[in-house]
Amino acid sequence: QVQLVESGGGVVQPGRSLRLSCAASGFMFSTYGMYWVRQAPGKGLEWVAVMSYDGGNEYYADSVKGRFTISRDNSKNTLYLQMNSLRSEDTAVYYCGKKAPGSVNQGIDSWGQGTLVTVSS
Amino acid sequence: DIVMTQTPLSLSVTPGQPASISCKSSQSLLHSDGKTYLYWYLQKPGQSPQLLIYEVSNRFSGVPDRFSGSGSGTDFTLKISRVEAEDVGVYYCMQSKQLPRITFGQGTRLEIK
After folding, report:
1. N or C: which end of chain B has fewer CB within 10 A?
2. Cα separation of B67 and A51, whole Å?
3. What is the DSSP string of A59-106?
């Protein structure tokens, strides 16, 4: 079955960087688009970034554009999120999500367990 | 961005009774390909979200048939025919019509009386 395992979260000072990873298994990773979605403590879900199956297209929420970079290594079945110039408002649990099969407009059908990023001095 | 608005934001239901959650979008979610990209998720306490319903009314694999989705255009509803204790958590609707900016509703917290 589909398994997504995030790692790389932790406590980081404002302005510093962190790289999250999402290890995928149980499906053909190289044929699915992938998302990053975050959830601030006690809050709802916010889309962060999305990347096409081949890495050819990437899009970002305005709140992270220019600071975060999504990437993937299909040979390692792994999705990444490089987070630079971190701010306190980036504090959240970060989830990776697999795009559902079918059209380009499909949403997320599987989620990882999440990794907590805390930005604090 | 398409704004998703859920009501109510919380509800308390007696086991065995039905429950209903509304989700309204600021624009039609009907895509030119004929599909309507409206999803429902449940986030149980301490867990990540899990897919319940895709494209308005299709139950995801393993989802009990007491969950059903309906609606069209901008108005959608998730119904639980008979609430069970394991249904506790926060329910979110989500649109993926306006890629890449998927957007979520605020969430509806379901508790058991």
Report:
1. C
2. 31
3. EE-TTTTTTEEEEEETTTTEEEEEE-S--GGG-EEEEEEEEPSSSTT-
Chain A residues with CB inside 8 Å of B97's CB?
Answer: 105
Mean pLDDT of chain A: 96
Nearby residues of A65 by Cβ (< 8 Å), 6 or more positions away = none
Decide if A37 contacts A97 (C-beta within 8 A): yes
Residues forming a β-bridge with A58: A51
Q: Which of B90, B62, B91 is nearest to B77 (CA)?
A: B91
Mean pLDDT of A5-14: 98
Quick check: A21 and A79 in contact, CB under 8 A?
yes
pLDDT score, position B2: 95
Of the residues B42, B76, B99, the best mutation for testing chain A's interface (the one with the most A CB atoms within 10 Å of its CB) is B99
Q: Given pLDDT bands bounded at 50, 70 and 90, which one contains residue B100?
A: confident
**Band of pLDDT at residue B30, cut at 50, 70 and 90:** very high
> For strand A58-60 and strand A45-51, is the pairing parallel, antiparallel, or unpaired?
antiparallel
Spell out the residues 6+ positions from residue B47 whose beta carbon is closer than 8 angstroms to its own.
A113, B89
Q: How far apart are the first and last CA of chain B?
A: 36
List the single residue in B35, B48, B94 with the smallest CB-CB distance to A112.
B48
Write the pLDDT tens digit of every residue in A55-80: 999 999 999 999 999 999 999 999 99
Contact criterion met (CB < 8 Å) for A111 and B100: no
